Amino acid sequence: MASKLPAVRLNTIGQIEEHGYALRLDCPSCARGADVDLPALLRQLGRDFTLPELRRHAACPHCGGAVTLTMRLEAAGTRPDGHPMAIRLKPRR
Length: 93
Ligand SMILES: [Zn+2]
Hints:
Elements: H1 13-18, E1 21-27, E2 32-35, H2 38-45, H3 51-57, E3 58-59, E4 68-73, E5 88-89
Antiparallel strand pairs: 1-2, 1-4, 3-5
The chain binds zinc ion (ZN).
The site of zinc ion has 8 residues, from loops.
């Protein structure tokens, strides 16, 4: 019988760090992308900042366009070169 893997709930940026995931930001508008500096983001927003909220508010620091967020296990791949991408938050309405 196939055993189910336990579901990992990743709902906040604190949980991403806890489970060893890396967060990557890609901007389709200007084709830039890099890993997010997760420790800096945690200091900036707090561990309980949720991913849906991050998706809504994240913007490309270069062109201000909408970005896509992808998660991967940090151990599963090598870090892309370059400076970690900062997240620019759109003002709340
Ligand atoms: Zn951009």
